[in-house]
Amino acid sequence: MTRxxxxxxxxxxxxxxxxxxxxxxxxxxxxxxxxxxxKRDDCTGLATGGNKTRKLEFLVGDALAQGADTLIxxxxxxxxxxxxxxxxxxxxxxxxxxxxxxxxxxxxxxxxSGNVLLDELLGAQIVRRLPAGTNMQAAMEELADxxxxxxxxxxxxxxxxxxxxxxxxxxxxAPELDAAPVAVDxxxxxxxxxxxxxxxxxxxxTVRSRAKVLGVSVRQPETKQVDAVFGLAERTAELIxxxxxxxxxxxxxxxxxxxxxxxxxxxxxxxxxxxxxEGILLDPVYSGKGFAGLLGNIxxxxxxxxxxxxxxxxxGSAGLFGYRSTFQ
Length: 328
Hints:
Strand content: 15-25%
Shape: globular
CATH class of the largest domain: Alpha Beta
Number of helices: 13
Largest sheet: 6 strands, mixed
Strand order of the largest sheet: 1-2-10-7-8-9
Number of domains: 2
Radius of gyration: 19 Å
């Protein structure tokens, strides 16, 4: 990993904590359940934290190595990635330009509070709000051309920071899980733009961990998500001189509901449950649906009672404020 440019942005390793109260409650409901832990990547320390911090250490490192002075990225209106990119740019003394895709129409709070408010407080410029279905990569390249014409040196970061450079962040996380004080059998998390799961799959294969990664899809059907994750995991593994197997990519698509960012009853219940038993806040787009998937798989008997299951908390609690009406 030392071959790759990197900028320190976060606090690592992140805590790994037992979910003791929740495990006890679930045992009362279901009998034998696995031993549950949580990997606190909501505690990475960059503007309320989150999984994108790991990716941005390598992406911003690469940008600075190329002489860039401006970061460009995109995401949905309440994008956790956009907020962390804005913070990373501020920490690295770079400009930040954001394009937001209006994938759903909600209310004024969704459009302007939560992550959107933080984007602006962190000094980023929301350049455009574009309709759902826009080719966001093309829109970023167009903006990059405009900035180059003005003498700037932009660096384009894909949505979610999900390319092989960004996925290195979760290759780097794999040794933290492998060195955990408990032997990890499963890692479960919400999977969307694929970078977190792809990096974990590549990284855990490299350290020869026995842990399996289950991605709970938050945006698309299983087959499409497996294709996306495996394709990126292959390219990431090639970058570090490793290999991955398609069989290593496991996805559960039963918790997407009406689509990306669309609330579900299971998501609301999962967020309320973890908050009230462990004092930990999830987000409504990724970790809330991911945790709902974890609970559903426990109820279905997916895991053995002897298993140790780690939920990877990808952060995003700032997004709760954009969904106030969903919870009240």
